[in-house]
Write a structure and sequence with these properties.
- By secondary structure, the protein is α/β, with parallel strands linked by helices.
- 23% of the residues lie in helices and 26% in strands.
- It has a single domain, classed as 3-Layer(aba) Sandwich (Rossmann fold), CATH 3.40.50.880.
- It is built from five helices and eleven strands, in the order βαββαβαββββαβββα.
- It has a nine-stranded mixed beta sheet with strand order 2-1-3-4-11-10-9-6-7, with helices on both faces.
- A hairpin with a 5-residue loop joins β10 and β11.
- The longest helix is centred in the last third of the chain and has 14 residues.
């Protein structure tokens, strides 16, 4: 059974959604407070959505200095599966585990709505079970969700198949319609949409299941690019 740690920062508010999604997929999931410095025994780590440290300064900037992030960096370096969702994606960029940054949405508007994503790469722990070109309906819930990076980074992301999810219709001005990216090894992924909120058709969509099933089974399959 995959053991998943869901990191909780002061201000996180999606940790229980992530916990419930992992449990429903058969994982042994538990909450991990941001002061923890040892992640031994976990197979995968999730940084959930919310407003870590109140988003003071800028989203994710203060969370980057939480003690747990040193452990997350070591965990990722050792090949562990790491997923950052929404605010978690912002934290991963601030920590340097993923390139680029998330800026305020085009039009300076908070967005909370279903979006259609296109699977752009299956070479990651989040998308390995999906099909290239597959369309998934996943909700977004963010104000600073527009992905940006310099030209060299963007070219590198494209050249190395590191853009894993794109928006079919760009809601926030994100460069290249980017909704999610991975690191070079494919074991660290960040995305702005919330797959943990798309686990049942009763709630509008269960398209998040294929992404999180990929994530849960990745440690078992020893996924490495």
């Amino acid at each position: 059974m995959t053991r998943v740690g869901v990191v909780v920062f002061p201000g996180s508010n999606c940790e229980y959604d992530a916990l419930a999604a992992m449990t429903s997929l058969g994982a042994d999931a538990e909450l991990v407070w941001h002061s923890v410095t040892d992640l031994d025994g976990f197979d995968a780590i999730i940084l959930p959505g919310g407003f870590a440290h109140g988003d003071y300064l800028r989203p994710g900037a203060l969370a980057r200095f939480s003690p747990v992030m040193e452990a997350v960096t070591r965990f990722a370096s050792d090949g562990g599966s790491v997923l950052g969702i929404c605010n978690g994606f912002q934290v991963l960029t601030e920590a340097g585990l993923l390139p680029g940054a998330l800026q305020k949405n085009r039009g300076l508007t908070f967005l909370c709505q279903p979006t259609t994503l296109v699977v752009s790469s299956t070479a990651s722990v989040l998308t390995s079970h999906a099909t290239l070109g597959q369309e998934l309906v996943i909700p977004i819930n963010h104000f600073s969700g527009s992905y940006t990076c310099d030209d060299a980074t963007y070219d590198e992301l494209i050249a190395n198949d590191r853009i894993v999810l794109t928006y079919k219709e760009n809601p926030n001005g994100s460069r290249g319609d980017i909704a999610g990216i991975t690191n070079a090894r494919g074991n660290v992924v960040g995305l702005m949409p919330h797959p943990e909120r798309a686990m049942s058709t009763l709630l509008g969509s269960d398209d998040g299941r294929i992404l999180l099933e990929s994530f849960v089974t990745a440690p078992i399959a020893s996924f490495v690019l």
